[in-house]
Design brief:
193 residues; alpha/beta; 2 domains; HECT domain-containing protein
Length: 193
Amino acid sequence: LNCGFTGAISVQNKEPIVRAITLHAVLRLQPMLEQLKEGLQLYGLHLLIKQYPEICQPLFVLGGDFVMASIHPQLSEKGTSKHQVELDLVNFIQDLLYESEDGPRSITPARFLQWITGQGHVPLLPSEKKDFAVVVKFNHNCEADFGNHSICYPVVSSCAKTIVLPVKHMKSYSQFRMVLLEAFHLGQEFNNV
Protein backbone atom coordinates (compact mmCIF):
# COMPACT_ATOMS: atom_id res chain seq x y z
CA LEU A 1 0.00 0.00 0.00
CA ASN A 2 2.91 2.36 0.74
CA CYS A 3 4.09 1.80 -2.84
CA GLY A 4 0.84 3.01 -4.39
CA PHE A 5 -0.97 -0.28 -4.96
CA THR A 6 -4.69 0.25 -4.42
CA GLY A 7 -6.17 -3.11 -5.48
CA ALA A 8 -7.10 -6.09 -3.40
CA ILE A 9 -4.16 -7.89 -1.84
CA SER A 10 -4.34 -11.49 -2.98
CA VAL A 11 -2.33 -14.17 -4.73
CA GLN A 12 -4.14 -13.33 -7.99
CA ASN A 13 -2.86 -9.72 -7.77
CA LYS A 14 0.76 -10.73 -7.23
CA GLU A 15 1.99 -9.32 -10.54
CA PRO A 16 0.40 -5.84 -10.14
CA ILE A 17 1.71 -5.68 -6.56
CA VAL A 18 5.26 -6.49 -7.70
CA ARG A 19 4.94 -3.86 -10.48
CA ALA A 20 3.80 -1.23 -7.97
CA ILE A 21 6.71 -2.01 -5.64
CA THR A 22 9.22 -1.96 -8.51
CA LEU A 23 7.86 1.33 -9.85
CA HIS A 24 7.98 2.86 -6.37
CA ALA A 25 11.62 1.80 -5.93
CA VAL A 26 12.65 3.11 -9.35
CA LEU A 27 10.87 6.44 -8.88
CA ARG A 28 12.52 6.87 -5.49
CA LEU A 29 15.96 5.98 -6.85
CA GLN A 30 15.82 7.99 -10.10
CA PRO A 31 16.31 11.49 -8.59
CA MET A 32 19.25 10.28 -6.52
CA LEU A 33 20.94 8.76 -9.58
CA GLU A 34 20.36 11.95 -11.59
CA GLN A 35 21.90 14.05 -8.83
CA LEU A 36 24.91 11.72 -8.67
CA LYS A 37 25.32 11.90 -12.45
CA GLU A 38 25.22 15.72 -12.40
CA GLY A 39 27.78 15.85 -9.60
CA LEU A 40 30.15 13.52 -11.45
CA GLN A 41 29.83 15.59 -14.61
CA LEU A 42 30.39 18.83 -12.72
CA TYR A 43 33.86 17.71 -11.70
CA GLY A 44 34.66 15.65 -14.80
CA LEU A 45 34.73 12.46 -12.78
CA HIS A 46 32.43 10.67 -15.24
CA LEU A 47 35.30 10.67 -17.77
CA LEU A 48 37.66 9.18 -15.19
CA ILE A 49 35.12 6.45 -14.40
CA LYS A 50 34.69 5.63 -18.10
CA GLN A 51 38.46 5.43 -18.53
CA TYR A 52 39.20 3.39 -15.36
CA PRO A 53 36.01 1.52 -14.38
CA GLU A 54 37.77 -1.26 -12.42
CA ILE A 55 39.74 1.19 -10.31
CA CYS A 56 36.69 3.35 -9.56
CA GLN A 57 34.21 0.56 -8.77
CA PRO A 58 35.14 0.21 -5.07
CA LEU A 59 34.34 3.90 -4.58
CA PHE A 60 30.66 3.23 -5.30
CA VAL A 61 29.95 0.30 -3.01
CA LEU A 62 27.04 1.24 -0.80
CA GLY A 63 28.04 1.79 2.82
CA GLY A 64 25.06 -0.23 4.03
CA ASP A 65 26.19 -3.20 1.92
CA PHE A 66 29.66 -3.04 3.45
CA VAL A 67 28.24 -2.78 6.97
CA MET A 68 26.00 -5.79 6.40
CA ALA A 69 28.88 -7.80 4.91
CA SER A 70 30.98 -6.90 7.98
CA ILE A 71 28.40 -7.98 10.53
CA HIS A 72 29.16 -11.28 12.24
CA PRO A 73 26.18 -12.18 14.41
CA GLN A 74 26.70 -14.74 17.14
CA LEU A 75 23.53 -16.69 16.48
CA SER A 76 21.88 -19.31 18.65
CA GLU A 77 21.51 -22.88 17.41
CA LYS A 78 19.78 -23.09 14.04
CA GLY A 79 16.14 -24.13 14.23
CA THR A 80 15.53 -22.58 17.66
CA SER A 81 13.14 -19.69 18.27
CA LYS A 82 16.10 -17.63 19.54
CA HIS A 83 17.86 -18.13 16.21
CA GLN A 84 14.87 -16.81 14.25
CA VAL A 85 14.51 -13.76 16.51
CA GLU A 86 18.22 -13.01 16.09
CA LEU A 87 17.94 -13.26 12.29
CA ASP A 88 15.02 -10.83 12.45
CA LEU A 89 17.18 -8.34 14.38
CA VAL A 90 19.98 -8.60 11.80
CA ASN A 91 17.41 -7.90 9.08
CA PHE A 92 16.15 -4.94 11.12
CA ILE A 93 19.69 -3.50 11.12
CA GLN A 94 19.76 -3.71 7.33
CA ASP A 95 16.31 -2.14 7.01
CA LEU A 96 17.29 0.71 9.31
CA LEU A 97 20.52 1.46 7.45
CA TYR A 98 18.76 1.62 4.08
CA GLU A 99 15.81 3.59 5.43
CA SER A 100 17.74 6.23 7.31
CA GLU A 101 20.39 7.45 4.91
CA ASP A 102 18.91 10.98 4.76
CA GLY A 103 18.33 13.66 7.37
CA PRO A 104 20.32 15.45 10.07
CA ARG A 105 19.52 12.91 12.81
CA SER A 106 19.76 9.87 10.58
CA ILE A 107 21.95 6.87 11.28
CA THR A 108 23.93 6.42 8.07
CA PRO A 109 26.21 3.42 7.58
CA ALA A 110 29.24 5.61 8.45
CA ARG A 111 27.61 6.90 11.65
CA PHE A 112 26.55 3.38 12.59
CA LEU A 113 30.14 2.16 12.16
CA GLN A 114 31.52 5.07 14.15
CA TRP A 115 29.09 4.39 16.99
CA ILE A 116 30.02 0.72 17.21
CA THR A 117 33.71 0.76 16.24
CA GLY A 118 34.93 4.32 16.70
CA GLN A 119 35.88 4.32 13.01
CA GLY A 120 33.67 6.69 11.04
CA HIS A 121 34.60 5.70 7.51
CA VAL A 122 33.96 2.68 5.37
CA PRO A 123 37.38 1.11 4.76
CA LEU A 124 38.55 1.47 1.15
CA LEU A 125 41.75 -0.53 1.12
CA PRO A 126 41.39 -4.28 0.58
CA SER A 127 43.61 -4.96 3.58
CA GLU A 128 41.33 -2.85 5.81
CA LYS A 129 38.17 -4.49 4.47
CA LYS A 130 39.49 -8.04 4.92
CA ASP A 131 40.02 -7.72 8.67
CA PHE A 132 37.03 -5.50 9.46
CA ALA A 133 34.27 -7.19 11.47
CA VAL A 134 31.43 -6.02 13.70
CA VAL A 135 30.26 -8.64 16.18
CA VAL A 136 26.56 -8.63 17.01
CA LYS A 137 25.53 -10.39 20.22
CA PHE A 138 22.03 -10.91 21.58
CA ASN A 139 20.89 -10.58 25.19
CA HIS A 140 17.76 -12.71 25.57
CA ASN A 141 17.49 -12.30 29.34
CA CYS A 142 18.37 -8.76 30.37
CA GLU A 143 16.38 -9.15 33.61
CA ALA A 144 19.14 -11.45 34.86
CA ASP A 145 21.66 -8.64 34.32
CA PHE A 146 19.60 -5.59 35.26
CA GLY A 147 16.65 -6.80 37.36
CA ASN A 148 13.07 -5.75 36.70
CA HIS A 149 13.05 -2.77 34.31
CA SER A 150 11.05 -1.24 31.48
CA ILE A 151 13.71 -0.86 28.77
CA CYS A 152 17.27 -1.85 27.91
CA TYR A 153 19.42 -0.22 25.29
CA PRO A 154 22.03 -1.81 23.06
CA VAL A 155 25.48 -1.99 24.61
CA VAL A 156 28.33 -0.92 22.35
CA SER A 157 32.00 -1.72 22.86
CA SER A 158 34.03 0.18 20.28
CA CYS A 159 37.35 -1.44 21.27
CA ALA A 160 35.90 -4.89 20.66
CA LYS A 161 33.77 -3.69 17.69
CA THR A 162 30.75 -5.31 19.34
CA ILE A 163 27.11 -4.44 19.88
CA VAL A 164 24.79 -6.38 22.20
CA LEU A 165 21.10 -6.09 21.32
CA PRO A 166 18.45 -6.45 24.06
CA VAL A 167 16.10 -8.90 22.33
CA LYS A 168 13.19 -8.42 24.78
CA HIS A 169 12.89 -4.73 23.88
CA MET A 170 13.26 -5.13 20.09
CA LYS A 171 10.72 -7.75 19.02
CA SER A 172 9.12 -5.70 16.23
CA TYR A 173 10.83 -3.43 13.72
CA SER A 174 9.18 -0.35 15.23
CA GLN A 175 10.48 -1.28 18.71
CA PHE A 176 13.92 -2.06 17.29
CA ARG A 177 14.05 1.24 15.43
CA MET A 178 12.89 3.29 18.42
CA VAL A 179 15.30 1.67 20.91
CA LEU A 180 18.32 1.65 18.58
CA LEU A 181 17.86 5.25 17.40
CA GLU A 182 17.30 6.46 20.95
CA ALA A 183 20.46 4.69 22.14
CA PHE A 184 22.41 6.02 19.18
CA HIS A 185 21.31 9.64 19.72
CA LEU A 186 21.78 9.47 23.48
CA GLY A 187 25.29 8.14 22.84
CA GLN A 188 26.02 11.02 20.46
CA GLU A 189 24.83 13.57 23.03
CA PHE A 190 26.96 11.94 25.74
CA ASN A 191 30.05 12.00 23.51
CA ASN A 192 29.53 15.70 22.74
CA VAL A 193 29.44 16.70 26.45
